[in-house]
Amino acid sequence: MPMDTEPQLVRIAADLAEQGWSRQDLFLTPDLTLELAAECHRRAAQGDLSAAGVGRGAAQGLQAAIRGDRIQWLEPGESSACDRYLARMDALRQALNASLYLGLEDYESHFAFYPPGAFYRRHLDRFRDDDRRAVSVVLYLNPDWLPQEGGALRLHLVQQELDIDPLAGRLVVFLSAEVPHEVLPATRDRLSLAGWFRRRGDGPF
Ligand code: OGA
Ligand code: MN
User: How far is the CA of 68 from the centre of ligand 1 (A)?
Assistant: First the structure.
């Protein structure tokens, strides 16, 4: 680990090595978190988000029974807020590579909007035909979230089930192949940015 790596990024790498997951409650500045929340709301209001898929080629009906979020993938250069978020995630990618030798090559990320009642059943963040995803990341964008509003991310860890509320500014990181997880239904809109650090593929891509 280079000496100048920020303490928070070092902690995330250490947590992943020790327990396979990490939670950071103040990952971005509150200002940037609010800007990203506003951008997610704007995209949802403009109709830019669409029903998320499950794996590859799954039937529409099946997807709705598994997950009910609407998403939009991020591209660089769309907004200052998104670019600052992507820069921060690239710093995390480099910190993980420096300490864990994961060989993470890129990052893919999407806004996710769960309307009230929507959920995502228990799953692993790997597709049967694509095992490039190595580390999963979720940043939550919901100010003043109350536990009784539901919407927790439930991690199915070896020793326990752990529920984490989707509170604004909170970042959860976990090993994509090792931590089954699910999103519980909420009573209000639930906004987030979900992403995956990927290794180099060895398929014909
Ligand atoms: C996912 C996912 C968790 C969350 O998008 O694959 O598991 O808390 N999201 O939004
Ligand atoms: Mn997931």
Answer: 11
Domains (range + CATH), the chain: 7-48+66-199 (2.60.120.620)
Q: Average of pLDDT values for 150-159?
A: 96
CA of 126 to the centre of ligand 2 (A): 8
113 CB burial (10 A radius; 0-12, 13-18, 19+): buried
Considering the entire predicted model, what is its pTM?
0.93
Q: Would you state the pLDDT for residue 52?
A: 82
- Name the residue at shortest CA distance from atom 6 of ligand 1: 125
- Interior CA angle at 130 toward 54 and 160, to 5°? 70
Scanning the chain, the segments in alpha helix (DSSP H) are 7-19, 30-45, 60-66, 80-100
- Report whether residue 165 contacts ligand 1, using a CB cutoff of 6 Å: no
Distance of CA 177 to the CA centre of its chain: 14
